[in-house]
Structures are given as C-alpha cells and as structure tokens.
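FORM 12-B: Structure-to-Sequence Request
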C-alpha cells in the first residue's frame, strides 16, 4: 500500500474548503432571505438555468451540484420556489434532462441496464408508490400530502444515473470530500446552535428558532440545566457514518489520526441530538461489526467508541450546567421513558398513536390507505383530538400507507441488499471492512426506522440508492475503492 501513501490526499484539497464554504453559505443565505419568497424564486430560477447549462456542457458538473445539495443542503428547503424546494427542483430537473438526453442520443436502453434483479425490484417500488399515490387521491387524501409523500420515492429514479456515474474516480473523490464536509459541517452547525441557546444569546421561539424549525426542519429542545437537544434531519446519516469509520478502524493496521477525529465528531452529533433510537441503532450496529473482525480489534474499537460518547456527554453537560450535572441522569431518564412512556411527552404521545394506526391498517390491510394519509388521535396531554401526517412509527406508517403488499416489496429490496452485501463480504479474503461497514450502517437504518420514517426520508432513500449502486457492481470495483480509502488523509510526498 506504499504507493497509496505517496499520493496526494483527497481531503486536503481546496475543493474541500469550497464545499465547507457552501455548507455555511447556503444556511446564511437561507436565514437572511427567510420570508422573501420572490428573491428566493429568482435565485432558484437562475440556479436551475445554470444547472441545465452545466448538464449539457458536462453531465458530471450537474451531478456534482445535485450531490452537493443532497449532502450539504440539510432537509432541502433552504431555498424554495413558491412551495417547491431547491432539492426537488434539482432532482427532477436532473432526471428529466438525463432521460431526455439519452432518448435523443438513443442511449437510454443501454443506460437502463443494471442488474436484472435490482431492476425488477426497483420498478416494483416505483409501481407501488404510483399505485398508493392514486389510492390516496381516490380515498380523498390531501393532494399536497400525497405529493409530499411521493417525492422521497421518486428519488429511487436516481438509481439509474447513479449506477453509471459513480464509476468515475473524480466523482468518487468528490463524494469523499462531500461526506467529510457533511460530517464536519454537521458538527459545526450543531455546536453553533447549541452554543447560541445554551449561552442564552438566543431564546426559544426567536426568529432563528423559527427558521431552524420551519426551514431547516430541525428541533431545539431545552432539557434543563443548560443542555439543549439539537435535532436535524441530516443527523440520521451520522450513525451509518460512525459505523463505517469504526469498521475501517477495526482493521489491524496503523490508521491516520484523522479517522478517529471524524469518529469523535460523529459521536458529538449524537450527543447533541440525544436520540434514544439513534443510540440503540449504534449499539446494534456495533454488534454487526463483529462480523469478520477479530474479537480483540472489535472489542477495543467498540469500548473506545462508547467511552468517547459518554465522555463527550459528560463534558458537554458539565460545561453547560457549570459543573452541576454530568448528563448521565438525563441520559438515563430518556431511556427510562421507553419503559414508562407517561413520564415524557414525546414517548407518551407516540404510544397514543398506536391504537388509531392499527385501526387504519385494518381498514385497508393489503394495499393500504394510500400516500398522504392522516391519522386522528386523542392527545393525552392536551385532551384534544389531533389530525396529523406524522405517524412517528416508521414500519407502521409504511404498512398504513403502502399496505402489507407495499411493505413486503420494500422489505424484499432490503433483504436483497443485505444478501448482496454478505455475498461481497464472503467473496473477499481480506479488506472486507468496507462492506461490513455498509452492512452495519444499513442495519442501523432499519433499526432507526422503527420509531422514525427513515426509509421514507429523502436522505434515507439516498443512502439506499448509494448502497445499491455499490453492491450491484462486480467485486472488481473494490480494487478502485481501496486506494481511495488510503488516500483520503495522506499528505502528498515529493
């Protein structure tokens, strides 16, 4: 591997800095333009024109912008064109241009070729999405809600261009820089928001809070003693990222210190998020990482990772509370509420949703109630009847909207991905850490989907599409990926 250690670092590149500037800049611009719909529309229209021109100049340039928005654009609503998010506009523009371009050049048939099993299952998912969308409209579900639920499924269409475009080495290097900036930016932004409210420079329900909740789609919760939960949709990728890095570190060789820095930053995101589901998913993910790893390396990295997690939790809590709280009591209370829901608002409300959800499933068990379904439940806190599209239970929401048939097809896709990942792992006599990390990350997402619609989420679908694009490739693709892993942080030697 000496030749990889004498090649220029992928991370230490000016493109990384520019990506971080974009990460921060889009958030500043979005906050500054909040409420200025006309200006946002003008900017997005200009961006769409530039995006289209770049596509025809070189398709990869438009693809890079799309990937950048997916990973650096948070929930995708930082800029909107009268209700249409920047992410939705870019995704559908790219898909339209990709299909139109390949039809005009008569290359569409070749570009539609991917592994036949994935091809059939992929179109089954798209078919189920269309059928349940039509069912939702026929059942009288709100059209806006139907479209909102349909959009994440449409991202599966990206599988076709992703499958072909991921092959280029420059694209792979760009994705690596994006992922590292995604993690660095996520920590930076979470710490900024945390400091803003923990220091009392900001107060709940101020203008920034409103922007963070309504545009960034995040949550800021005062947990007491100066600790604030900072939750953002993009945090769902932190757990798979932590597991993937940990899998690489479990390989018995010397690793660059930057890998451990990235791992620590990912853990800091989870500490500030303080999600029970994410923590449990991480625990189960680490159990999966034992697969093909030695007991010694697995135990060392696992214990070390959780030790760092609790050290960060205690440190942040002590600093925020001026030494009066270690945060362990708050952490324990969060998990105690899972057994005793009545002691916490979120778990109490979530349990109140179960009975009406099961009633809806019984109403249309096979094909479901259609996309855009709403649930009526009696709030045990306000003693009011509430109507919402937020089911809070991922698999039950899928069963409610897609029916048993749709849920089964979705799970078949997942099982096939798991099967293909395991096949790749078994076929490698060495360097299986890459695929084991992907396997653990995918299983973590499946765990997280129990209490959150992760597989319904745009980033969840993006993660699935990315993994599918990797696993359906022949094992020879790993020969190209391996050098990239060694080159991420290595300095250039003259």
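FORM 12-B RESPONSE
SEQUENCE OUT:
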């Amino acid at each position: 591997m000496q030749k990889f250690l004498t090649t220029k670092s992928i991370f230490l590149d000016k493109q990384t800095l520019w990506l971080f500037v974009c990460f921060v800049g889009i958030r500043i611009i979005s906050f500054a333009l909040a409420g200025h719909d006309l200006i946002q529309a003008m900017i997005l229209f200009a961006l769409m024109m530039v995006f289209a021109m770049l596509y025809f100049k070189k398709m990869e340039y438009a693809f890079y912008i799309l990937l950048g928005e997916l990973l650096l654009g948070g929930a995708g609503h930082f800029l909107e064109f009268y209700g249409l998010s920047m992410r939705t506009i870019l995704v559908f523009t790219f898909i339209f241009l990709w299909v139109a371009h390949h039809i005009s050049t008569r290359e569409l048939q070749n570009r539609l070729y991917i592994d036949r099993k994935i091809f059939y299952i992929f179109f089954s998912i798209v078919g189920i999405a269309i059928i349940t969308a039509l069912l939702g409209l026929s059942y009288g579900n709100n059209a806006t809600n139907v479209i909102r639920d349909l959009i994440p499924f449409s991202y599966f269409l990206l599988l076709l261009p992703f499958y072909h475009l991921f092959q280029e080495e420059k694209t792979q290097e760009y994705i690596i820089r994006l992922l590292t900036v995604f993690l660095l930016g996520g920590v930076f932004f979470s710490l900024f928001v945390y400091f803003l409210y923990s220091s009392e420079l900001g107060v709940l329900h101020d203008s920034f809070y409103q922007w963070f909740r309504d545009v960034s789609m995040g949550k800021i919760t005062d947990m007491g003693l100066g600790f604030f939960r900072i939750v953002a949709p993009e945090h769902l990728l932190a757990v798979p990222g932590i597991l993937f890095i940990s899998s690489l570190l479990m390989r018995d060789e010397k690793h660059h210190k930057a890998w451990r820095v990235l791992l620590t930053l990912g853990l800091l995101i989870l500490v500030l998020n303080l999600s029970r589901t994410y923590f449990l998913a991480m625990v189960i993910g680490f159990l999966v990482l034992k697969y093909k790893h030695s007991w010694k390396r697995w135990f060392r990295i696992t214990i070390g990772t959780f030790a760092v997690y609790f050290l960060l939790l205690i440190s942040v809590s002590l600093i925020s509370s001026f030494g009066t709280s270690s945060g362990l009591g708050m952490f324990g209370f969060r998990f105690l509420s899972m057994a005793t829901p009545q002691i916490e608002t979120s778990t109490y409300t979530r349990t109140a949703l179960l009975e009406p959800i099961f009633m809806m499933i019984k109403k249309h068990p096979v094909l479901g109630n259609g996309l855009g379904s709403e649930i009526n439940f009696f709030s045990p806190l306000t003693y009011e009847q509430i109507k919402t599209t937020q089911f809070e239970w991922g698999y039950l929401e899928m069963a409610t909207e897609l029916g048993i048939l749709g849920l089964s097809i979705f799970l078949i896709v997942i099982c096939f991905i798991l099967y293909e990942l395991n096949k790749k792992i078994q076929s490698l006599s060495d360097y299986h850490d890459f695929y084991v990390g992907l396997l653990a990350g995918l299983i973590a997402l499946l765990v997280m989907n129990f209490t959150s619609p992760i597989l319904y989420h745009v980033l969840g679908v993006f993660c699935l599409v990315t993994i599918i694009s990797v696993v359906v490739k022949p094992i020879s693709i790993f020969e190209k990926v391996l050098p990239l892993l060694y080159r991420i942080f290595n300095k250039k030697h003259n």
